[in-house]
Amino acid sequence: MSVVTTFPRAVRCLDPIFIPMRDGCRLAATIWLPEDAEASPVPAILELIPYRRRDGTVFRDVKMHPYVAGHGFACCRVDIRGSGDSEGVLTDEYTEQEFDDAEDIIAWLAAEPWSTGAVGMTGISWGGFNALQVAARRPAALKAVIALCCSDDRYADDVHYAGGCLLTEDAMWSSFILGLGALPPDPQIVGARWREMWKERLEASTCWSDVWLQHQRRDAYWQRGSICEDFSKVDIPVYAISGWDDTYFNAVPRLLEGLSGPRKGLVGPWSHAYPFLGEPGPAIGYMQEAIRWWRHWLCGIDTGIMDEPVYTAWIMDPHRPAPFYADHPGRWVGEPSWPSPNAETRTLQLNARGLADEPVAGEAVVLSTPMVTMRDFGRFGGYGGEAPDMALDQRREDGLGLVFDSDPLTTDVDILGACEVEFRGICDVADAQLVAKICDVAPDGTSTLVTWGCLNLTHRNGHAEPETLRPGEAFAARITLGHIGRRFPAGHRLRLVLTTQLWPILWPSPQRPTIRLLPGSSQLLLPVRIPVIGEVAPSFAPVEIAPPLEVTEIAPLQHRREIRRDVGSGREAVALTSDFGRYWLPDRSILTAACVVDRMELTDGDPLSATLETGWGMAFTSGEANVETRSKVTLTSTATQFRLQWQLLALEQGEVVFERTGERHIDRDHL
């Protein structure tokens, strides 16, 4: 990684800038732009997110936005209404108010004297979501988008539901946003109004899972803001980017297939991070790539970027399982379109003795997974790097499910795309879930998780109108696993494992189901990439960044995973602690800290014993403000209802100045 201190155009930083909205509310922004922009105007690039621009995302912002600005752009980082130093309150993700505000910001940027009138929109995670969503509104000045680590489908591919199953990440995410949203604006920026603005935020605080749990099927709540509902609404160029160790990579090929305008896709080996910060590596020179995109679509300069592959993906080489990786070995491949002409579907039959090319009839095999924690599976949304949250050797957990192994491969096989399982079975209960995972099994027996997928079987015919199973009657279902780019080498086996639960990632069904599978009646569909003669691998520039922020570390980053099992009761608890450290930012006299503990417990054999408790502690000191917030969300259930409990504490100078609790019983809707 090279630090660049001199750019083609000298850069100045404007902070704070307050951008007026149509209703009079003002949103706080930081803008980096060339010093001579008024004499020689530049396009603007907007990033609109709620993660506090001066003490939250500033660590990555200063490495990125000044670099891009120095190459002839104005980079505008805005706090969403009700976050950071912006006025108003934040009530939910992706509201119509948020989209209105984005349109107002885009119009403001286009009208500034230093602007050419062309605007791009970018962001990772929340910022990638709203970049796509705002593009669907077609504001006149918005000309192109780079959307990273995000989704086109709010219901099926976010942190709330997967395959119609409830993700425990839903409650974890709401606990985070509850604590973050209760932090005050910076007195150094907004002055004496900070207490009034803080009080307004605290009074508006609530647990968003209260809303999300009331929409357990794909209804109008999730359809709004899911651009997959009508891809034709997005008619500007889109560059979609993610990484295989993120959770949002599926959106990249979907966008390439669904959009009709100019588009590109990139999936690397990374987790939930910009590619220049990519972990696991190798990282790439993302800023240079982004600048080529922006110059092409905002400046009208043919950079050649659209002559390159439509879809560039990292094909990972085999690697042994580990809790974290510095790098994933592999290679880049480029596809001229997606779906790719370089792919074919190979079908393997699920026979009693394993995976085979031809079906073999036989006695039914029985699937009934124990309720013990899948503690070696890693966590949903693993963030790579130093966090020990990636999947370990799967042999123990493979043995808890129904295993189908292939014969040892005689040649290397590349998989690029989404594997699918077409399943026929008989279940003994009305509500059940089915999980499928694919592992790479080395000759010594080591089993490495490659990809997985799940399905609430009451959603087998769609997520909008669930249909209960009829116990004792045959059903058919299709599970689509996550996309993957992976090389299976000769001598290894491909393993498919089916289970009926994935705790603590998925909330368990009310009863432990038993499913009977008739051998030879189900198939695994593999997207095999055909070798391309004379293929030239895509390449990227080395990583370059602007000078990083000066930071004094007071307490270091630490991660812990603890597993405890009471042999007598069969109760198992997993506690994941991520202490993100305590840091002093001398250039702005801010102290910041954050820590989260996620605790999941379950008693073997009793799905109604599942308990999730997730709590965040955050600290912010600046000027007059010496503040902490503590959020806690607890989720339990009966056979018919979820019980959601939450608490928010706000402290000033160590004393509690605000407390709010809530409790809601929400009917289970085929979950």
How would the blueprint of this fold be written?
Layout: E1 2-3, E2 11-20, E3 26-34, E4 42-49, H1 58-69, E5 74-79, H2 96-111, E6 115-124, H3 126-135, E7 142-148, E8 161-162, E9 165-166, H4 169-181, H5 187-190, H6 194-204, H7 209-212, H8 220-223, E10 238-243, H9 251-258, E11 263-268, H10 286-298, E12 311-316, E13 330-335, E14 343-351, E15 354-356, E16 365-367, H11 395-398, E17 402-405, E18 413-427, E19 433-441, E20 447-456, E21 474-488, E22 493-499, E23 515-517, E24 523-529, E25 544-545, E26 552-555, E27 558-566, E28 571-585, E29 590-603, E30 606-622, E31 625-637, E32 641-652, E33 655-667
Parallel strand pairs: 1-25, 4-5, 4-6, 6-7, 7-10, 10-11, 11-12
Antiparallel strand pairs: 2-3, 3-5, 8-9, 12-13, 14-15, 14-24, 16-23, 17-22, 18-21, 18-23, 18-24, 19-20, 19-22, 26-28, 27-28, 28-29, 29-30, 30-31, 31-32, 32-33
The multimeric state of the shown protein is single chain
Q: Extract low-pLDDT stretches.
A: none
CATH class assignment of the largest domain: Alpha Beta
What class do helices, strands and sheet pairing give? mainly beta
Annotation field: number of helices: 11
Q: How much is the average pLDDT?
A: 96
- Percent of residues in helices comes to 10-25%
Instruction: Choose one word for the global shape.
Output: globular
- According to CATH, the homologous superfamily of the largest domain is Alpha/Beta hydrolase fold, catalytic domain
Question: In angstroms, what separates the terminal alpha carbons?
Answer: 47 Å
The number of distinct β-strands equals: 33
- The structural domain count equals 3
Please describe the biggest sheet, giving its number of strands, its sense, and whether it closes into a barrel: 10 strands, mixed
